[in-house]
């Protein structure tokens, strides 16, 4: 199995420990991981702002970097979904192949590797933020508005972590308000949504807030810092890779 690690640009710049944890976790599980060093942004910020026609360079570069692998794994639901739904390039055949091979980290662990046990340990009370792209786009967890059996691939993995106490929230799948460029265009609405999301976790005693998307966690982290809250954010890759 040849697996390429796709690291979102904001993770590379602001949260490199998430990329490192992802790499280490995959290697612990026996995966041979490569990191294409000339990878850049997948083009999602431009597309979200209505300028998808300006992403051709990003798309061609993505295809150049990630062609020839069996799977491409990314610690971000939103970036993964963007590539799955919007990657088109000069070499369209190669782009189509990549669209079918890119996986968000959690879905790769549960759907491809079919992980049933982990050696990780994390002795804290943790709240799970289920990001919109992963939930509604990648179907990583159940949407509360649907009448069907509840599930969460992320929760399944967290339950394998020794010592971790997963708290229950009042609203399990509420948006945090980040939304990429939405938090810039609609700052006041974005902040109020984030404050509400943080309050739910704090009210139920979370020590940490985790999730599949560091972008959402970054938004919540900013609010927590401004509130001088002791609650911290941590990407799920860091928890699954932890040995405390």
Topology, element by element:
Layout: E1 2-5, H1 9-14, H2 16-28, E2 32-34, H3 44-48, H4 56-66, E3 71-74, H5 77-86, H6 92-99, E4 102-104, H7 105-112, E5 125-129, H8 132-137, H9 153-158, E6 165-166, H10 182-185, H11 187-203, E7 208-211, H12 214-226, E8 232-235, H13 236-240
Parallel strand pairs: 1-2, 1-3, 3-4, 5-6, 5-7, 7-8
N-to-C order of helices and strands: EHHEHHEHHEHEHHEHHEHEH
Shape: globular
Q: Give me the CATH fold name of the largest domain.
A: Rossmann fold
Class from helix and strand fractions: alpha/beta
CATH C-level class of the largest domain: Alpha Beta
Determine the N-to-C terminus distance. 30 Å
Task: Describe the structure concisely for a colleague.
By secondary structure, the protein is an alpha/beta fold.
């Amino acid at each position: 199995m040849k697996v390429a690690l796709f690291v979102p640009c904001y993770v590379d710049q602001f949260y490199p420990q998430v990329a490192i944890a992802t790499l280490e976790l995959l290697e612990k599980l026996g995966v041979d991981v490569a990191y294409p060093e000339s990878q850049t942004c997948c083009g999602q910020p431009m597309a979200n702002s209505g300028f998808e026609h300006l992403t051709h360079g990003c798309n061609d570069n993505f295809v150049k970097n990630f062609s020839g692998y069996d799977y491409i794994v990314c610690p971000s639901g939103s970036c993964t979904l963007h590539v799955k739904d919007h990657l088109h390039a000069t070499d369209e055949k190669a782009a189509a192949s990549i669209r079918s091979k890119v996986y968000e980290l959690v879905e790769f662990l549960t759907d491809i590797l079919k992980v049933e046990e982990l050696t990780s340990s994390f002795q804290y009370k943790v709240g799970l933020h289920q990001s919109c792209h992963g939930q509604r786009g990648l179907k990583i967890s159940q949407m509360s508005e649907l009448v069907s059996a509840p599930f969460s691939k992320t929760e399944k993995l967290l339950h394998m972590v020794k010592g971790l106490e997963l708290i229950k929230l009042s609203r399990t799948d509420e948006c945090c308000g980040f939304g990429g460029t939405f938090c810039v265009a609609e700052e006041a609405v974005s902040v109020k949504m984030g404050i509400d999301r943080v309050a739910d976790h704090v009210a139920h005693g979370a020590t940490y807030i985790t999730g599949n998307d560091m972008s959402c966690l970054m938004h919540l982290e900013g609010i927590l810092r401004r509130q001088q809250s002791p609650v911290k954010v941590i990407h799920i890759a860091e928890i699954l890779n932890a040995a405390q």
